[in-house]
Write a structure and sequence with these properties.
By secondary structure, this protein is an alpha+beta fold. The protein contains 26 helices and 10 strands. Among the domains are: about 140 residues, Endopeptidase. Chain P, domain 1 (Glutathione S-transferase Yfyf (Class Pi), Chain A, domain 2, Up-down Bundle); about 60 residues, no CATH class; about 160 residues, Neurolysin, domain 3. Helices cover about 55% and strands about 5% of the residues.
Length: about 675
């Protein structure tokens, strides 16, 4: 039966040993270098589209798949030795990537090619690819003197190595705190029951999401929340603070060598926002609009804190601390909107949510998913599916779901594109393969895995990225799947989060784990009404992170701890806890979001416009709109500018109106 799942078209394998990872890394480097050597050795007269541009594009295909096989295990393998070997492979390959990106001979031949061919007659995607490669060459300093290039190369290698270390430190972080029953006052029984105990009978609590967030939301014991928050925002503090501050210096030095005023100016040149000034203005305007909401919300939280302290005879310092924030945000949802998060999650068992979510995506995008029995995967908890187009039966790819925490595993939720969809060889399409990695609560003997509504939203969001990878149909790897402008990449998946706030989808992916009853209408109504609960505080926290990111990346040096503390007071109105540095665990700043974290809010403007203008008006499960979305937004990958994709889908220029309505900042 295996042929039905097209496993032979999946070029990935997960049965590697540390030794084979090492050997294959060396072989891959040798093979790819040979291609660059051939292209670089061509004389000006010999350069053609076939032997230069196509040779590089074909190498991209083989290299990207082989590289992912070697560097993905550092995030997911249950074997520490394999994770170590994979991290080392990533460092070697990243160093090699830097070497190849700095090949003067290859760059020169690309410039020759552009002058030689009539680019107006070139196929649009190839022309775009050639322009991008030359632009990237200039951004690497290949038009500058050799001594500057050597400095650039050294800086890029150092930046790459320490970025990998930053995230490795976070993946391997495994602090646990010991708690008594009274430390966990207010926590539901099922949470306490699933915790391990030590020899003295104390509960072991980790800083992983399934332990940390429930405690911050529901634990009545202030001291426990304080301990947890302090430990959580002190993860990897000594080693990663140093790394982040060195990254800031390296990035500014690169900008200086290339003649850009700041690293942010360098990065944003290729983004939708274009300039740091545009980003600062966007964040500032939004801050002003949200400020009245935030003040109101903090006053309500302070009132709740006063009542709570009087009721339980606790000391009240008359301010909302960081360890209070999520606790009182939850209380606002429960009291003002009567949303009981613990009751709500009883309606979201993992199996029901997964089935509902997969059904919704299939129906909306015209796809058919099939689960693969006994799949070739890296851990027993991982499931694997094949994807086909419903109308044509065309096989489109595979995806993996790796949903529960394990030691050493990547600690957040993310989509990893592993095999890009593109044309290769004689024009056949290579199907896409992507993995969704998350850290939801594991099932126990007594209870299935129950998701909070936040986690359902996270599932929808990350799976949206998976679909972007699977549905992308560019010709070239360079433009595959999610390789769009970084400040647009979140929009397609954020757009799909809206389904978690609509009645029909909510009913389809919920049923009580004990008696299979659907989520009652009154609970759905309360949940939907509560969508903008805490909108001021929640969105100002996003603005804080985006502003921090822009601030350090418009500086030559940064004392991250004091900058973050100052901005936290000014923007969020809640102080960073002394002795902590949240930035030491801000993984995005070391894995490609540097000077781009604003993109989450920036792209939300577009996602809300798409949702309100098309799906809300024409039907959220309307297959025609779903197909338009797939064709206009997901299918092009990065082969078209994001603004043009949006105009094609919306039939007009995008606007901010729907975004402001969604935040409760404008009347419908």
């Amino acid at each position: 039966m295996a042929e039905n799942y097209h496993l032979e078209l999946n070029r990935l394998s997960w049965d590697l040993t540390p030794e084979t990872i090492k050997t294959r890394t060396e072989e891959l480097i040798e093979k790819a270098k040979a291609v660059y050597d051939i292209v670089g050795a061509l004389s000006k007269d010999e350069v053609t589209l076939e032997n230069t541009l196509k040779a590089l594009a074909d190498n991209d295909v083989d290299y990207s798949v082989a590289r992912n096989v070697l560097d993905f295990p550092q995030h997911v393998s249950p074997d520490k030795d394999i994770r170590e070997a994979s991290t080392e492979a990533d460092k070697k390959l990243s160093d090699f990537d830097v070497e190849m990106s700095m090949r003067q001979d290859v760059y020169d031949n690309l410039v020759v090619l552009q002058a030689k061919v009539n680019t107006d007659e070139m196929e649009a995607e190839s022309k775009r690819y050639l322009e991008k490669l030359i632009k990237l060459g200039k951004r690497n300093g290949l038009h500058l003197p050799k001594d500057i290039q050597d400095q650039m190369k050294a800086l890029k290698k150092r930046e790459s190595d320490i970025s990998i270390d930053f995230n490795k430190n976070l993946n391997e972080e495994n602090t646990t705190l010991e708690m008594t029953e009274s430390d966990l006052a207010g926590m539901p029984e099922d949470f306490i029951k699933r915790l391990e105990k030590n020899a003295e009978g104390r509960y072991k609590v980790s800083l992983k999401y399934p332990d940390y967030f429930p405690i911050m939301r529901k634990c009545r014991n202030q001291e426990t929340r304080k301990r947890m928050e302090f430990a959580f925002n002190s993860r990897c503090i000594s080693e990663n603070t140093k790394i982040l501050e060195e990254l800031v210096e390296i990035r500014q030095k690169k900008a200086d060598l290339l003649g850009y005023p700041t690293h942010a100016a360098f990065i944003l040149e290729l983004r939708m926002a274009k300039t740091p000034e545009a980003v600062v203005q966007f964040l500032r305007d939004l801050t002003e609009k949200l400020r009245p909401l935030q003040k109101e919300e903090l006053e309500v939280m302070l009132q709740f804190k006063k009542e709570e302290c009087e009721k339980y005879k606790l000391e009240n310092d008359n301010k909302i601390n960081l360890w209070d924030m999520r606790y009182y945000m939850t209380m606002v949802e429960e009291r003002k909107y009567a949303v009981d998060q613990n009751k709500l999650k009883e309606y979201f068992p993992m199996e029901v949510v997964t089935k509902g979510l997969l059904d919704i995506y299939q129906e909306l995008l015209g796809l058919k998913f099939q689960e693969i029995p006994n799949p070739p995967v890296w851990d027993k908890d991982v499931t694997m599916f094949s994807v086909a187009d419903t109308a044509t039966g065309e096989f489109m790819g595979h995806f993996y779901l790796d949903l529960y925490p394990r030691e050493g595993k990547f600690g957040h939720a993310a989509c990893f594109g592993l095999q890009p969809s593109c044309l290769y060889g004689d024009g056949k399409r290579q199907p896409a393969v992507a993995a969704m990695v998350a850290n939801f609560t594991k099932p126990t003997d007594e209870k299935p895995s129950l998701l909070t509504h936040d986690e359902v939203e996270t599932f929808f969001h990350e799976f949206g990225h998976v679909m972007h990878d699977i549905c992308g149909k560019p010709k070239l790897v360079f433009f595959s799947g999610t390789r769009v402008e970084r400040d647009f990449v979140e929009a397609p998946s954020q757009m799909l989060e809206n389904w978690c706030w609509e009645k029909e989808p909510l009913r389809r992916m919920s049923s009580h784990y004990k008696d299979n009853t659907p989520l009652p209408d009154d609970m759905i109504e309360k949940l939907v009404k509560a969508r903008n609960a805490n909108a001021g505080v929640f969105n100002l926290r996003q603005i804080l992170l985006g502003t921090f990111d822009q601030t350090i990346h418009t500086s030559a040096k940064a004392d991250t701890r004091s900058i973050y503390a100052k901005l936290s007071d000014e923007i969020l109105g809640i102080s960073a806890t002394p002795g902590t540095n949240m930035c030491a665990s801000f993984g995005h700043l070391a894995d490609g979001y540097d000077a781009q974290y604003y993109g989450y809010l920036w792209s939300e403007v577009f996602c809300m416009d798409m949702f309100y203008s098309r799906f809300k008006k024409e039907g959220i499960m309307n297959p025609k709109v779903g197909m338009d979305y797939r064709k206009c937004i997901l299918q092009p990958g990065g082969s078209t500018d994001a603004i043009d994709m949006l105009k094609n889908f919306l039939g007009r220029e995008p606007t901010q109106e729907a975004f402001l309505i969604s935040k409760g900042l404008q009347e419908k």
